[in-house]
Queue: 4 jobs
Job 1
Amino acid sequence: MFTISDEAVKQISVSAEQSDSTGMALRIAAHRNSDGSFEYAMGFDDKKEGDTIYNCNGVDVVVANDCSDLLDGASLDYVELNPGKPEFIFRNPNDPTHKMDK
């Protein structure tokens, strides 16, 4: 199951309004690089054949079936890692190069 924090939901809503994408699902994708690290992508999109759709904290999330295993148990957050520069971050227990908060 993929989860989205309250802060990320707020920013997704703002982004959807700004990009005229209100009502569209948020597509989340992951790819395993040759070094084992993960690369993530997201954007507003429609559901396509072979996709799975989840409702995470009020947001419809679309995931292609080939990404489902990579994203199982992952979460999306919106945090300010550097002062004045908030950003989306993925926390994923499946990514061997990603340090999870304990």
Job 2
Amino acid sequence: MSHVTAIDLEIKDLDALAAACHELGLFLQRNNAHWRWFGRWVDDYDASDAAYRNGYPPALYGTGEHAISVPGSSYDIGVCRIPDTGKLTLIYDFYGHNGRTIREHVGPACEKLKQIYGVHAALNAARQAAARAGRSFSFSRSVKADGSHVLTLNA
């Protein structure tokens, strides 16, 4: 079975993605053009988040620009460029044990990874802006009871 989904996230900062992966115990394999999945498309998943319905054709499944290794899973998360839009996003097979293992690390729709990626992307953007202005900055980060992250930046 293959249930390959595309995550609604555009990756614009690979360093932020690497930092988010590290924080979640994952490993970004840069320039790894192959990510592990079931291995063949059997046309058994047709939901709105199916990768092929979001511009990533089944002929490309298992290929991309980078891969994210997930401890305990023999499947990876692909960091893939959508051919028609050029958007870099996350694609993975969530079926069975491997999919459950991935979702335990990143959340059912990659919410944890998306949120931590956003934190690191914001911090990287703040660092770059401060450097361009010749200033330093500091920040604090806290996690609310609902799991959301709060960043406070001071320049």
Job 3
Amino acid sequence: MHVFCYVPFSGFLLLVIFLSGRVIQLRKKNVQIHPFKQEKGIQQFPLFIAFAVVLFLWLFEILRPVLHLSYSILPDWLIEPVFQSLILKSAGAVYILLSLILMGKTLHDFGHSFRMGLDKNNRGKLITTGIFSFSRNPFFLALNLFFLGTAMIIPGIFLIVFTLAAIVGSHLFILKEERFMLKNYGESYKSYCKKVRRYL
């Protein structure tokens, strides 16, 4: 088994450690991470279950090579490699490394303004310095790089489709977030958008 198969799961563990560590740090400082009001209802439950199942399958597929498991929950045609390219696997490993560096820098530069979700009562301050002077959405850029790198290392149809869906989903969330930011930060956010691109 090639050494590249260990990169996605190791990277995933590091991302979880980065995010968990930041959340713990902020909670110790009594910073509210989650929005005070969360719109949850019975209508969203099936969507949550579907998301959890897909995420579990994705996690299983990146863990399977590490544990040398020959079987999968998914059909063979969804997990068989679409290509075998050492160059693409190498590039995928570089993307994952870049995503980890970018995520670490992003969480650092967020300071006390790191939030999960959108709430006008719990918005934090507008961050425009550090990594945010190069990208308005370095958090999602880091995640997209990670998913892309993973699909390049383990190029089954399922992981490729998951990556495309994750990129489209994050873009749609960014568009929603931009409307929220414009509404809550007004001219300062509009001015920021003129200076810094959405991704790079």
Job 4
Amino acid sequence: MSARIRFENVSKKYLLGQTRTSLPSVVSEWLARTIRNRSGPPPEDRVLWSLRDVSFDLDEGQSLALLGPNGAGKTTILKLLANITKPTSGRIETAGQLSALIELGAGFHPDLTGRENIFLNGTILGLSRKYIADRFDEIVDFSELERFIDTPVKRYSSGMIVRLGFAVASCIEPEILLVDEVLAVGDATFRQKCMQRIRSLMKGGTSIIFVSHNLYLVQAVCDRGLYLHKGQLQFLGTVDEAISVYEQRLHQERAEKFEIGDAEAAGSLDYDVEISRVEVLDGGGRPAEVLRSDEPARIQIHYHAFKSIGKAHASVFIMRSDGLTCCMMRTKISGVALHIERGSGMITVDLEPLQLISGTYYAEAHFLNETDSMELDAKSGRSDWFSVQGRFLSYEESSGVYEPLVSWEQRSLDNPHNHHAWAIDGIGSTIDAPGGSSGKKEKK
């Protein structure tokens, strides 16, 4: 059976203050509801529409990111698809085996060991004991928790719980996989591993619905995006378009809170400067989606200061697609003194050469106070994705993250005249180093 999801005009309504934790509360709510029904529908301030007429389709092998602020309705969609709750109106169709990783530790019993929880979780998903046993070693290997597999889960850290939960959810090869924010707890290496696993599942025909506030992770995993605001569908399209619409809305909301020239509004803000754009350019200052590791690159930070700040500092990070920090540049460390006046400005950082190995990256920037201890901006600025073409044809995790400028030397301890030294000029060429004779080097 091919994986398929159909979400047609789905709405979900909650009554605020409604609880169902015990028999007395259920009876109490029933009596209160009976009385309210006699006097008419509940007042509008007690009604919360978590979703309102939302529609989308997802076919085999597709990936969809759900975007929006907290309370937008993203997790509600996942819970409806996982059959945890029912829609108030509309129609939901799912075809194919579904696996959900919605809440940290969901489906795990804290007093059971990791081994026992693997079988429990698999049984909840409708799998036979034999199927789980056949996949057991693969699940444990992916989670990297072999040493702790017979330890009760209540002694696991949050990161260990995520590892085990994702391993169970993904290694059973579901036809539909729901993932909600939990990867934010894992470390960079594990996130990269999860992303590779998700891509492998997609190639095998698994459909993915992915929720994360980490927009970089979203871009790396998904090809489509759905932007929600207060339970209503705002945009559905490619993931890049959806992120752009979402970020424009965030920028618009911040702009509405502040109008240039309004001193009273400026005093009410909890930040002093806003980063409007971060650009990654080639050495000539031109936009480029692909940069070479052995050529210069430039990072430009555009900002607007809502008031004069005086002395300040800036930090710039280059991040790999899995969230790994590749390098950090700080004005404080470089001995650079910034002075920020009210108005718009730009800061430029030049890297000569770039030195990153082949891969996909983005740049992130922050403003900090004079002591370099407190951020001055409401949120960091980030660039678009950019790719780096290294001097080597292949890219492996073991290659590291950058290609340093190096020099090599070979000296014979028996013959002092047998001495060779080489220096690399930053563009992959070998030149003679002072004090030694160079051997001929063949470029790769």
